[in-house]
Design a protein that fits this description.
The complex is a heterodimer of chains A (about 325) and B (about 1200).
Chain A (H helix, E strand, L loop, with lengths): L7 E3 L2 E3 L3 E3 L8 H9 L4 E3 L3 E2 H16 L22 H14 L4 E7 L7 H8 L4 E6 L9 H18 L4 E5 L6 H10 L4 E4 L7 E3 L4 E3 L11 H10 L6 E5 L5 H9 L4 E4 L1 H6 L3 H15 L5 H4 L16 H9 L7
Parallel strand pairs in A: 3-4, 3-13, 4-6, 5-6, 6-7, 7-8, 8-9, 9-12, 12-13
Antiparallel strand pairs in A: 1-2, 10-11
Helix pairs in contact in A: 1-3, 3-4, 8-10
Chain B lengths: L6 E5 H11 L3 E4 L6 H12 L11 E4 L3 H13 L4 E5 L1 H16 L5 E6 L14 H4 L7 E4 L3 H18 L3 E6 L7 E5 L3 H7 L2 H10 L18 H6 L2 H22 L6 E5 L5 E5 L2 H15 L4 E6 L1 E3 L3 H7 L6 E6 L10 H12 L5 E7 L8 H12 L6 E4 L9 E2 L13 E8 L4 H15 L3 E8 L7 E9 L12 E6 L3 H5 L6 E10 L4 H4 L5 H9 L3 E5 L1 H7 L7 H12 L4 H16 L4 H14 L4 E3 L21 H11 L32 E5 L9 H5 L5 E7 L11 E2 L8 E7 L9 H5 L3 E2 L2 E5 L1 E5 H17 L13 H4 L18 H11 L3 E5 L3 H7 L16 E3 L6 H26 L8 H6 L5 H18 L5 H9 L7 E7 H7 L1 H9 L5 E6 L2 E2 L5 E2 L23 H6 L5 E5 L5 H13 L4 E6 L12 H10 L6 E3 L7 E3 L8 H5 L3 H4 ...
Parallel strand pairs in B: 2-3, 2-4, 4-5, 5-7, 6-7, 10-11, 10-13, 13-14, 14-15, 15-16, 17-20, 20-21, 21-22, 31-32, 31-33, 33-34, 34-38, 37-38
Antiparallel strand pairs in B: 1-8, 6-12, 8-18, 9-11, 17-19, 18-19, 22-23, 24-30, 25-27, 26-27, 28-29, 35-36, 37-39, 39-40
Helix pairs in contact in B: 1-2, 1-6, 3-4, 6-10, 11-14, 15-20, 20-21, 20-22, 21-22, 28-37, 30-33, 30-35
The chains are: A alpha/beta (about 325), B alpha/beta (about 1200).
Chain lengths: ~325, ~1200
């Protein structure tokens, strides 16, 4: 029996396997990206270019060069004119281009922002740099009085605007916290998304009780985190004419299999690689292949979506009834 | 014309430096105002790879002083290179020894000098020729420029002539007036410069250079037999020099079309009255003479260009034979001489030529005093009198020796063709930048000629700027401030309440105000003076809320773009659309490197401006009943009211000579009368949250946040905040913290330092910022009450703790330092601890400027009238100056002791023994001694004889004086290091406080040897390539010097402890205090945080080396807990490093490790207390 076909299709791109490098620091250096590619990854998503990062850097440079100038006769300025320029997204584009030239797998650019504005030029820059696709990471936390509808409209406007700017395939990475995710997802696809990435992780700050201060905290995901995207992929995949990529909680071949079963076409890894290194990629692929072989699957494609809400015998397992079942499972454990 | 790319707008410094850079191979630099910019530009150009005429980037080297720069130049020319330097004032004086050598050896070089006042009764950064005149005996050629164009042209002529003449040249132009005036001028191309410089002369210079291939020696020592002859041997070169210069001027004219002569005469060919003058004043004199000649007067002006060697024949030839009355104007003062230098030269020249003329000599323009056409006319008028004053001054009112000429201030020669505009703004709002930019647009993008000059006040926080812009179809030759402006703008409305802004508006002119009042309400917001000017002069009045437009477009308080757009729209200099296009073009050029978003928000501000610009309907009459605010309250002492008040109101020019102290002695404690009310937000104390730690008050840079402990029974008004004093020290007493709302700059350091958090709202602390408008009224009442509370008995306070020290009254208050200054908290702490017995020697720099710049000064007095006595000598000699004070006071004390012993028999009831022996180590000891001295003085009044009189004169010295030597790192690490080292080595009880900002802060951030590797600074535009010098370790190596490295933001308790130990040490003490600074490119609100990070990353280890202790070394900070980058990433000085900045930072990391290792060595037992072991203690008074 021949080895199962691991290839998959994502955003219209042909990938050798469903493992995708999620946006992570790996792409900040060309040699690290090459290492991941050589380890066998199916595609690379670049680290995100942040709207705020550039705005902040530009404002900071402006302030640095403006502070205290032309105020005092002896010191009309305080720093020399060194010719330093604000960090430019062009550097990101150059990096993407270098990585693209150095690897054979598809390279997907990534932009992270929350508003329409001049920074959307970055999208075109990424396309021009040779990206095979673009992942738009929308990180918008409504802490104000915006209604759910307004928040959703903000996302849709952004997707529409980016779609208008670029021709390459577009994936949209969203968070899980939407009241009516299926309806919203449909609208995202209608606005031009070729794929959805489930989910963005909103890093939650912590409280330091010694200093009474709010501290940023970054925890790596675990396989337990996979269940949230699994459920939604299962529900959404039959409904959407778009690819689904699962991100957040993919650490092993089991996680990959689960994701594929519920209908994802790719799975994105970051935490696993950051902790264990790119050498995990061939191991996961080997285990994946072994499982498929053992269970007599010819290809990933054959498996993909076979346990989506449309394919399982009891779709309510992904819905509210499953919740009740889970709660009741504790009933007998208490004295 | 606009297409001609050779036209540029630049200032005189850039004009001179542009030539110097291209014509030099070795450039030695050192910062001094107003010449620093020339060195900065050369360094920046070198960093960017800009070559000289021969394709090589000049080698730029910053030196430790101007003396060092001159020495380096000497070495460079001695070995055959083309060399230059830039300096002024005291810097030039430090070059004198080398200047004699350079001329004596007939070595060509050019020093470019932006001529500046020498410090006499006071320091002044402004322009006159006292520096130039003090080097006239050095044997140098002295070539003067009168304007920006000439600063460029004469620089070229000087570089060309020196090579041929073999005489070194000093090319000079007036500091500020020319060095800082931005003017449209024609730039010399490289080709033109190449045509000026004679390659054969360079070859000859090379061949004269020292070379082991053709060995020779120079600098021999000669004896009486030949020295004299040798000195005379150079005469032929001096005889030839003027001819060479003249020929170079002619060559220059052929190349450029601009003809200069050694002396240029302008005026009536048959003039009877002639003024002889050089420098920028010549421009004014010439333009005035032209007007007077047109009116039929027989007057003229002789401009001196080559002042040395003085070509007498050429002078006589240039002077019309008809001239019988000559006034020679010198921009210097030579007290005691029979006349000023140029006057004497003219008298001699005429006498020798047997030319009959009446010559009078006058002084003008000292320290950039205005020199106007009205003053020129008064000189011509004086010459017309039958008996003119032989010696005179002009521009002031000398009501003491009555030398001054009166002049008619209404006399004006301003061209009707020219547009004149005056802008009042704040330093922080971008007004000057916008105007520099407008000048460039008008001068470089249109056919107009343009000139800009900018006046700043002497405060570093909340400073007021006044921009003077002229432009028009003819070249602008008016090096004086605008007195009649067709356009006046006030960019900050509160200035309208303090200054008579519209006094310079000409009738029918236009006034633009940035105001938060809408057009219909703005009229009634103006004081009567402003309304009257608007009505009487029929001014058109426009208003815009520029601050609102700026904020709405993300520009914060920088209203520059908005006001610039309005200026162009109203003034009509260019068609509106064209103006906006040019402004945007200029924004793109200026801000492109800062990023698209920065350009974008400026564009948005431009586009939003005009919609908010409104013309105000002016009523026919004055309706306001509110007058201009008085500069100081009526309750102020007469001197403050009558002398300092006019200075505050910007009318100090009107003060007569009699108003001024003749010896430069001023009263202290005068900042308290100048209420500037700068802060938009002020701190408000939350007494319920306060833990009474003193951390907020200790960091207050301006002494405006204070703590007091007072009796419960004290009478305080309702609403006065106080809580029970915590701890055991003050049972039954109350504690309060109070801000002086009108002295606060709103820097927020107090809030940053406060460790207490409100239990139910952790975002709030025990001190919180609140809008000034809301909080100030109540705080003003509380501040009055706070001041009325008595100061605490000093002997009750544990002064060596943060909390205790903060109960002592600061005797350094409300300085004009930058908001959030990192230096002044240390200075203030010193004043709290020892202010009532403190004598301070202060090096020139930031601390001498915020400490001693008029109008008002911050050193203050306590309730007993005691307080720090402060003096500034120079930049380079401060340690020696302080040592002199120490020796003097000790000597006087010794004399007092001697006299006490001698008079003991006549001093019944006076505890003579105690007066001599009683310890004064604490407040009780000091107080006891003061009482004994008071008793002694009382008794002495009745004792007859000269010895009693002598003792009375020195009796106060029996109370110990604390002598502190203060300065920055530029002084301590560089220019003053030799002296500091010697003074520390002396073993005398002097205390040195180095406020280490790691750059020359006052002159604008030039690198010092304290600058860390990897940081960019001026003169180190590529990033400093060498590590920071470790001054502390150097001083520790003596073994008997107390040394502490402190950083208040990191450990305030260690700071206070270090001061106490330094003061107690029986020998020299050195405290090196980390001082965050605006020159670090930081948000000053985060200065304390940066101090903390500097310590945590290991850049600034905290320690105290106390030779009096059994184990001298105490490390007060642990091993690094954060990376160097965590600290440096917050500072622009590190972020701006381009190119190999990364490798510099890698080296900087190794520097930290090396510094820590070196420091830790002192913790080991091997080096424990060499002083205690008797190895290193010097014999007292025996200076090694």
């Amino acid at each position: 029996m021949s080895a199962p076909d691991l290839s998959t299709s994502y955003l219209g791109l042909k990938l050798a396997n469903p493992l995708v490098l999620a946006a992570s620091p790996y792409t900040k250096r060309v040699e690290n990206a090459i290492a991941v590619a050589e380890a066998g990854i199916g595609a690379i998503v670049m680290h995100s270019i942040f709207e705020e990062e550039y705005l902040h850097a530009e404002a900071e440079l402006d302030q640095t060069l403006s502070r205290g100038i032309d105020s005092f006769a002896e010191a009309t300025s305080y720093l020399p004119e060194t010719g330093v320029e604000a960090p430019s997204p062009r550097r990101y584009a150059q990096l993407l281009s270098s990585i693209k030239q150095a690897v054979r797998v598809p390279v997907i650019g990534s932009i992270n922002g929350s508003s329409e504005g001049g920074w959307l030029d970055y999208a075109e820059m990424i396309q021009d740099a040779g990206a095979d696709a673009l992942e738009l990471n929308v990180y918008y936390l409504s802490a104000g009085s915006s209604s759910a509808a307004e928040v959703e409209d903000t996302y849709l406007k952004l997707v529409t605007a980016v779609r208008r700017r670029v021709k390459i395939p577009l994936a949209v990475k969203i968070g899980p916290f939407f009241t009516a995710l299926p309806a919203f997802s449909q609208r995202l696809v209608a606005a031009g998304a070729d794929g959805l990435v489930l989910f963005n992780r909103f890093y939650q700050p912590d409280i330091d009780i010694d200093t009474l201060s709010v501290v940023p905290k970054l925890n790596f995901s675990t396989s337990d985190d996979l269940r949230l995207p699994l459920r939604w992929a299962a529900i959404l995949s039959p409904q959407l004419k778009a690819d689904i990529s699962i991100s957040g909680g993919v650490h092993s071949h089991q996680d990959v299999l689960k994701s594929l079963l519920v209908g994802a076409s790719t799975t994105q890894l970051a935490a696993e690689l950051l902790q264990m290194g790119p050498s995990r990629i061939p191991l996961i692929l080997k285990d994946l292949e072994a499982w498929l072989t053992e269970h007599e699957y010819d290809s990933v494609e054959q498996l993909q979506g076979s346990m989506s809400a449309a394919s399982v015998a009891d779709p309510t397992a992904f819905e509210r009834s499953n919740y009740l079942k889970a709660l009741r499972s504790y009933d007998d454990r208490l004295p | 014309m606009a297409e001609n790319s050779l036209f540029r707008c630049m200032d005189g410094n850039e004009a001179a430096a542009s030539v110097a850079h291209r014509c030099s191979e070795v450039i030695a630099i050192y910062p001094i105002t107003p010449s620093s910019n020339m060195g900065e530009l050369a360094d920046e150009w070198a960093a960017k790879g800009k070559p000289n005429l021969w394709g090589q980037v000049p080698s730029i080297m910053e030196m430790q002083s101007e003396g060092g720069a001159a020495g380096t130049c000497h070495g460079a020319v001695m070995t055959g290179s083309l060399t230059t330097t830039f300096t002024a004032s005291q810097g030039l004086l430090l070059m004198i020894p080398n200047m004699y050598k350079l001329s004596g050896e007939l070595t060509p070089t050019v020093f470019h000098v932006s001529a500046r006042c020498l410090a006499t009764h006071a320091l002044s950064i402004f322009g006159d020729h006292s520096d130039v005149m003090s080097i006239r005996s050095c044997g140098w050629a002295l070539l003067a420029s009168s304007n920006v164009q000439e600063a460029h042209d004469m620089a070229a002529i000087a570089h060309a002539a020196t090579l041929k003449a073999r005489i070194p040249f000093m090319h000079f132009f007036d500091g500020f007036r020319t060095s800082h005036e931005v003017s449209k001028m024609t730039v010399l191309s490289d080709d033109q410069l190449r045509q000026m410089i004679d390659e054969d002369a360079i070859t000859a210079h090379r061949e004269r250079g020292l070379s082991p291939d053709r060995p020779m020696i120079r600098g021999t020592a000669q004896n009486p037999d030949v020295f004299f002859q040798g000195r005379e041997a150079c005469n032929p070169w001096y005889d030839a020099c003027a001819g060479i210069v003249s020929a170079e001027m002619d060559r220059f004219a052929k190349i450029t079309g601009r003809q200069y002569h050694l002396f240029d005469y302008v005026g009536a060919p048959n003039a009877e009255r002639v003024i002889v003058i050089m420098g920028s004043g010549a421009e004014t004199a010439v333009e005035t003479a032209k007007v007077l000649v047109k009116a039929g007067e027989k007057v003229g002006v002789l401009i001196v260009r080559l002042y040395r060697p003085l070509a007498v024949e050429a002078f006589l030839k240039a002077l019309p034979i008809s001239a019988t009355k000559i006034a020679v104007l010198d921009r210097t003062k030579e007290p005691g001489a029979s006349g000023e230098p140029m006057f004497l030269d003219v008298v001699t020249a005429l006498a020798e030529a047997k030319r009959q003329a009446e010559v009078i000599g006058g002084r003008y323009g000292l320290s950039s005093k205005e020199f106007t056409p009205a003053m020129v006319k008064s000189v011509f008028d004086e010459l017309a009198k039958p008996q003119p004053k032989k010696r005179f001054t002009v521009g002031i009112n000398d009501d003491v020796t009555h030398l001054s000429l009166t002049y008619d201030p209404a006399f004006s020669i301003e061209s009707p063709q020219a547009t004149r505009c005056v802008f009042f703004g704040l330093g922080s709002d971008g007004t000057v930048g916008a105007n520099k930019n407008s000048i460039k647009i008008i001068g470089e993008e249109t056919d107009n000629w343009a000139q800009g000059y900018f006046v700043y006040d002497s405060k570093k926080s909340g400073s007021v700027t006044v921009s003077h812009l002229r432009f028009g179809p003819d070249p602008v030759r008016a090096p004086y401030l605008i007195e009649r402006a067709g356009f006046v703008a006030c960019h900050f409305q509160r200035l309208m309440d303090r200054l008579d802004v519209l006094s310079c508006a000409q009738p029918g002119g236009t006034f633009l105000l940035n105001s938060s009042f809408p057009p219909e309400a703005v009229w009634s917001s103006l004081p009567t003076q402003a309304q009257r000017q608007i009505v009487d002069k029929k001014l058109r009045f426009f208003v815009i809320n520029a601050t609102q437009v700026a904020v709405a477009n993300g520009m914060g308080n920088r209203i520059n773009t908005v006001m610039q757009t309005c200026f162009f729209a109203i003034s009509g200099v260019l068609p509106k659309d064209q103006a906006i296009a040019k402004i945007k073009q200029s924004i793109e050029k200026t801000y492109a490197k800062r990023g698209a978003s920065v350009v974008q928000k400026n564009f948005q501000a431009v586009d939003a401006s005009l919609a908010h610009l409104h013309e105000v309907t002016v009523p026919g009459t004055v309706t306001s009943t509110v007058d201009l605010l008085k500069p100081v309250p009526d309750a102020a002492p007469a001197f403050v009211r009558d002398v300092l008040g006019p200075m505050i109101s910007a009318v100090g020019d009107s003060l007569p000579v009699s108003a001024m102290p003749a010896d430069g002695t001023f009263p202290t404690g005068t900042t308290q009368w100048e209420k500037r009310a700068l802060a938009e937000n002020i701190p408000v104390w939350d007494e319920a949250t306060c833990i009474q730690c003193g951390k907020c008050t200790i960091v207050c840079p301006h002494g405006c946040l204070r703590a007091k402990v007072f009796d419960d029974t004290a009478n305080v008004p309702n609403g006065f905040k106080a809580i029970k004093a915590s701890g055991k020290d003050f049972p039954g007493k109350k504690f309060t913290i109070q801000v002086s709302p009108d002295d606060c700059t709103g820097c927020t350091l107090c809030v940053e330092a406060c460790p207490a958090k409100n239990k139910s709202q952790v975002g709030r602390k025990a001190i919180n910022m609140a809008p000034e408008a809301e909080a100030a009224p109540a705080e003003r009442i509380r501040w009055e009450a706070f001041q009325a509370l008595p100061d605490i008995d000093r002997s009750l306070v544990k002064a060596n703790t943060v909390k205790g020290s903060q109960l002592l009254r600061p005797l350094f208050e409300f300085s004009g330092a930058c908001a959030g200054c990192g230096e002044t908290p240390y200075v203030k702490l010193l004043s709290q601890l020892y202010g009532d017995r403190l004598v301070i020697a202060n090096a020139t720099g930031c601390s001498s400027i915020y400490g001693g710049n008029l109008p008002t000064t911050p050193w203050a007095k306590d309730a007993n009238g005691r307080g720090p006595a402060w003096a500034n000598s120079l930049f380079e000699d401060n340690a020696e100056f302080g040592l002199g004070m120490r020796l003097s006071l000790d000597h006087q004390k010794g004399h007092a002791v001697q006299l006490l012993r001698s008079l003991e028999g006549q001093l019944a009831g006076v505890p003579v023994g105690e007066l001599i022996e009683a310890p004064q180590k604490d407040e009780a000891g000091i107080t006891g001694q003061r009482m004994r001295v008071a008793l002694l003085k009382q008794r002495l009044a009745t004792v007859p004889g000269v010895e009693a009189k002598r003792l009375l004169a020195v009796a106060d010295s029996l109370v110990d004086r604390s002598v502190w030597i203060l300065g920055g790192d530029g002084w301590a690490y560089d220019i003053g290091f030799g002296g500091l080292d010697h003074v520390l080595a002396s073993g005398e009880k002097v205390r040195v406080l180095v406020m280490d900002t790691e750059v020359y802060s006052n002159t604008g951030g030039q690198a010092s040897k304290s600058t860390p590797r990897g940081a960019v600074a001026k003169f180190a535009a590529k990033g400093k390539a060498t590590p920071k010098k470790d001054l502390a370790l150097m001083a520790m190596s003596y073994g008997y010097v107390y040394v502490a490295r402190i950083a208040m933001g990191a450990n305030d308790a260690q700071t206070v402890k270090a001061f106490a130990e330094a003061e107690a040490h029986d020998g020299p003490s050195l405290i090196i205090a980390y001082s965050h600074c605006i020159a670090h490119g930081i948000d000053m609100r985060k200065g304390l945080e940066q101090q903390k990070l500097a310590v945590q990353c290991g850049h600034w280890p905290l320690y105290r080396f106390n030779p009096d202790a059994p184990q001298p070394m105490t490390l007060d900070s642990g091993a690094p807990t954060i990376s160097l980058e965590t600290y440096t990433q917050n500072e622009g000085r590190y972020r701006l490093a381009a190119g190999d900045g990364g490798s510099l930072m890698a080296s900087a990391r190794t520097d930290l490790a090396a510094r820590l290792l070196a420091t830790k060595r002192y913790v080991t037992t091997e080096t424990a207390n060499p002083a205690a072991a008797g190895e290193a203690k010097p014999v007292q008074g025996n200076v090694p």
